[in-house]
């Protein structure tokens, strides 16, 4: 299934990642109109042992196949099929904190927790001003 960027019909690919750390997204059930707002990182941390020492590195995440962390949404995708859902990237972010900030901003701005037309049921966020200034 495809990710689209900013309500376009252009497919977002690995070549479009450039120096971004992650993104904030919107998944929409095109039959019911229900939506989900979340964030995903392009890479994940991996630890392996080299000569008895632990080495950390970053490897590609499963972002291309990702359907959010919401259990209800995941069950609907399995039941109804991926074809009735649209995955859209709302914001590309350069840091983890910028992703957290923009995800929380979108959830509050769209009143996702107060509205049954969203799958979102909770939000957590801890961000310092210096982590996001100049990075959004």
How would you portray this structure in words?
The protein has 136 residues and is α+β, with helices and mostly antiparallel strands. Helix content is 21%, strand content 32%. It is built from three helices and six strands, in the order E-E-E-E-E-H-E-H-H. The protein has helices at residues 71-80, 96-109, 129-132, and strands at residues 3-5, 22-29, 35-41, 43-50, 53-60, 85-93. The strands form two sheets. A four-stranded mixed beta sheet has the order 1-6-2-3. A hairpin with a 5-residue loop joins strand 2 and strand 3 (35-41). The protein is globular. The two termini are 27 Å apart.
Global outline = globular
Radius of gyration of CA atoms, rounded to a whole number: 16 Å
Q: Let me know the largest β-sheet.
A: 4 strands, mixed
| Element-by-element helix/strand order | EEEEEHEHH
Structural class: alpha+beta
The first-to-last residue Cα distance is 27 Å
- List low-confidence stretches: none
| Count of β-strands | 6
Number of H- or I-type helical stretches: 3
pLDDT averaged over residues = 91
Order of strands, main sheet, comes to 1-6-2-3
């Amino acid at each position: 299934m495809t990710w689209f960027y900013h309500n376009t019909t252009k497919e977002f690919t690995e070549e479009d990642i450039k120096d971004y750390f992650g993104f904030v997204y919107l998944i929409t059930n095109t039959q019911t109109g229900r939506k989900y707002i979340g964030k995903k990182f392009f890479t994940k941390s991996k630890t392996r042992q080299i000569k008895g020492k632990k080495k950390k590195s970053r490897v590609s995440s499963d972002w291309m196949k990702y359907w959010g962390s919401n259990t209800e949404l995941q069950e609907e995708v399995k039941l109804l099929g991926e074809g009735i859902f649209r995955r859209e990237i709302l914001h590309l972010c350069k840091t983890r904190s910028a992703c957290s900030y923009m995800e929380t901003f979108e959830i509050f701005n769209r009143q996702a927790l107060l509205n049954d037309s969203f799958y979102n049921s909770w939000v957590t966020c801890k961000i310092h001003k210096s982590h996001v200034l100049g990075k959004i």
